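Escalated from tier 1: uridine-5'-diphosphate holo job.
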Amino acid sequence: MSILVTGGTGFIGSHTCVELLEAGYDLVVFDNFYNSKPSVLDSIVDITGKGFKFYHSDMNDIGDLEKIFSDNDIDCVIHFAGFKAVGESVEKPLMYYSNNITGTLNLLNVMKDHNVKKLVFSSSATVYGVPKKVPLTEDMPLSVTNPYGRTKLMIEDILRDLCVSDPEWSVLLLRYFNPVGGHKSGLLCEDPNGIPNNLMPRILDTAFGIQEKLTVFGNDYDTVDGTGVRDYIHVTDLAKGHVNAARKLDAFRGIEAVNLGTGRGYSVLELIKTFERVNNVSVPFEFAPRRPGDVAECYADTKKAYDFLGWKAELGIEDMCRDSYVARVNHSGRSDEE
Ligand code: UDP
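Tier 2 regenerated the structure:
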């Protein structure tokens, strides 16, 4: 019995593959390398000392999906594959809907045909829209503000409908807060193609001199120091949450949403200062107006993750800052052309 991991060479996918292999699972992985690199496969093997089957394919190719399910005895699927850049999704909504929605429908149809009815879906705290209060609990109203977020919410809705229609499905919607960090070996890190949008990759670019100054969007929020507050979570903790989720799929039927966060918010300035201190580097920054669409504070209520999955985050903000930096230092010396 194997777990199929779609998008398994991406940032969260690759860390999850490591944790699943270390927990003893057999894996089948597929990815189209749209936002990742083939060298990630070697890193996963180097870290774990374990092999797995890999398909360079795309969820929009039903023939490929059919072959994967016919060739392998797949027990459940952890579904990461999808486009994820908010700004790009606003510019190219059709591309996002085609890839994320159609691709997921292809996957679900092939799963159904092969009687595979256990799924962990990579959702996001973005489905909470503009929070009316924090911390966010899973039963809060859902709304979204951009096409990327809408693909997450639409897929959640599709999965809810599917579970109503057929009670044999077991589906977990994991709503991630702000993943950062990298594998402690330094072999895996966030490596976005193009100019990064998120805070930690931009802090890294500034620390490495790729970007002269970090722009801090807004210092007039009603928060501890006026800058935005988010629930940053170490990617290794997040990956471990998927191991617990995969185990849980055998123990229930239906659909459940679970927040994966630490439950603790940090401001932009707190993150910058911690990063500078633990890595002994400088991150020059300047304030700019608020970024449209940003909210002041967003952090998780983590009770359900603990009660339902038996999971809680273990690594702190210093680990996140250190491992993000070490992974980038190490990664700068590696090349896919080697
Ligand atoms: N942020 C910032 N400068 C940047 C990128 C992000 O000040 O170059 C802030 C942003 O306004 C927010 C926080 O950092 O308060 C986290 O932003 P990110 O895009 O990483 O995550 P999200 O807003 O999607 O939670």
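The domain at 2-180+233-261+300-314 is CATH 3.40.50.720 (Rossmann fold).
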